[in-house]
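Hi Y.,

Following your request, here is the sequence exactly as I used it, all 449 residues.
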Amino acid sequence: MGEPVTACRWLPRCLARVAKLLPPMLIVIVAAAAAPAAAQLGGLLDAGKRAAEEARKALEAKRAADEAKKASEPKKEQDATQKPAAPAPGAAGGSTAPAAAAGTPATAPAFESYSKYDFVPGEKVVAAEDFTQDAIGDFPAKWNTDGAGEVVTLAGQPGRWLKLTKRGFFLPEFVTALPDNFTLEFDVMVAPTYSSGGSTLSVALAELANVKQPQQWQSSNNTFVTTLTPTATGGSSGYTTRQDSTSASAAQTEVALLAARNARPVHVSLWRQRQRVRVYIGQDKVWDVPRAIAPSAKFNALLYFVPAAFDAGHEYYLANVRVAVGAPDARNKILTQGKWVSHGILFDVNSDRIKGESYGSLKEMASVLAEHADLKVQIVGHTDSDGDDAANLDLSKRRAASVKTALATRFGIDATRMDTDGKGESQPIDKNDTPAGKANNRRVEFVKK
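Below is the corresponding structure, written out as tokens. Let me know if you'd prefer a different format.
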């Protein structure tokens, strides 16, 4: 009888195929009955097409709105350099792996976790390193080493980083004096897959007898060394001190914030006040040593030191190195001179969100305002000259407003005692052609009214 009727896929074809098999009258009856079903099927197909088209248009509209929002956001940050374009995959020094597996930035610690954080950076930035003047894949021009390293970008992290790829010392040669009162800050990170097979990172203040032979720093008459040793699930820190050629003291403690699995940078701060040294890892003060340094010490070098060989995947990454001098004194500055300039209030990239490590500086100003109930201030934000003028002006105003909000909500200062303004890049206090100069220009000022 030919091809079976059950092989037909569409009803009109079936009718054509059975035309030769059925009597004419029966064909008319079947066709009449099938017409409404075919019409219903066609209607369903048309409705499906219309729904798909509407969904496609809605998705395109959402993408366009998202792109417009991103384009309108300011491209400026106060505490780190603008994020450079990542090199092509496989390029030397390209985007490497210490970010979370998804490639997105890990969540920063909650602002409240810094409630006991009392670090306040020095008044003037005298040395800063963000590696923007160095090519990706190169060792930084203003550093010295007997090991090896390269400037890289990291997936999900802003700015550039120095990757320490071989054991040895790493010396920023532009740091030539560390006086009685100074602060040091930097960010450090390891890969989230870091486990056994790594080496300790030492951060040393040294009085070099010969600055041309930094590899002999361990035999210096005076040193203060703090160590960072991460593990997969925890970590530890220690310190040793050498005073007038004699080893004076040493200690060790556990530091959970160094755990590699945290998959985020750790902010390290060191504060020297004459003989006293305080070391902070993240929001925790891990060391406060009142007689850490000999009165005779004249430190002239900062070194990062990796003493032992390590396996691949256990490299350290450094960023945002900053040295500032001068004892912070918000009370005296605001009451007697009418203005306190803070370089310690920092913000997230492209945002007016205040970083947790700003807590000490905010607390310093809040204490002055709390003790002097009649004191009123204007909070003024400033930026460096990178980026668009209008965006800088807007960002400086928003960041000043964020500082006011923090003082009111976190510290209970009456908001009516504070007003805000922003000057963008229009009132620099230093040159804008070096990382240190830019760091000085990025600031928040409190002006007595």
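Residues 1-45, 67-93, 100-109 have pLDDT under 50 and may be disordered.

Thanks again,
Q.
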